[in-house]
Amino acid sequence: MASAPTQETFSNFQQYLTKDQDIREEIRVSVREIEQTAREILTALQGVHQPAGCKDTVSICKRSREMFANIRRQYNDLAAKLPAEQYYRFHDHWRFANQRCVFLAAFLVYLESDKLITREEAAELLGVKERREDGFHIDLDDFLMGLLQLANELSRLAVNSVTAGDYSRPTKIANFVAELDAGFRLLNLKNDALRKRFDGLKYDVKKIEEVVYDVTIRGLNPPPAQKPEAQAEEQ
């Protein structure tokens, strides 16, 4: 039979485990809410893959951006449940949700401006901190994973844009993803999952290049618009 000091020690262990399990369950509830809202935003954004959606990007982006208000509220609730200085202890619970939300934010910003989202813009859109020392934030690896998901989504958009009759968009996408690929090649990636996902980027680049090639040889890709100065010189 265990002695009194031993029983007390293990009783304290059980209290710690129970408290830890309660925190984890509360976190899971918040993460499930974030994941549900993320699915709703993805459904809205994927309207751009439809022929009608390609021509109505502005309204799709407007509606999607409004939906991020729920994401910000849900991340605020999640951050409130997290014990101080224990972000990485529970990180696995929201790792994939963070990656998906960064992807959605990056996709939205690209559709609005043809530009790459910054980490600061992503943090603002999601309602989290940019830097680790400031509190609940988006880990850099999760941010980079989100950008790689964006490249995959844009390879699909390149194909569907042609189907919808937008023959100039694939070239814009190709230039954007090529720059993204060049940026990732500057990184010395230590994370195995991130490096493996980056290895798949070359297939996205190849798929987009094939779309551009097909459009070009068919004469469907309009030449780039000339600057007024160049047009004057030709005349």
Your description of this structure?
This protein has 235 residues and is an all-alpha fold. 74% of the residues lie in helices and 0% in strands. It contains ten helices and no strands. Helix 4 packs across helix 6, helix 6 (140-163) runs antiparallel to helix 7 and helix 7 (169-184) packs antiparallel against helix 9 (201-217). Mean pLDDT is 90; it is low at 230-235.
E-strand count: 0
Helix content: over 70%
Mean pLDDT: 90
Give the number of helices: 10
Order of helices and strands: HHHHHHHHHH
First-to-last CA distance: 102 Å
Low-confidence stretches: 230-235
Beta-strand content estimate: under 5%
Q: Mind summarizing the main beta sheet? A: none
Task: Give a short summary of the structure.
The chain is mainly α. Helices cover 74% and strands 0% of the residues.
Essential attributes:
mainly alpha, single chain, elongated
Task: Outline the fold blueprint.
Layout: H1 4-45, H2 51-54, H3 57-81, H4 91-113, H5 119-126, H6 140-163, H7 169-184, H8 192-199, H9 201-217, H10 228-234
Helix pairs in contact: 1-3, 1-4, 4-6, 6-7, 6-9, 7-9
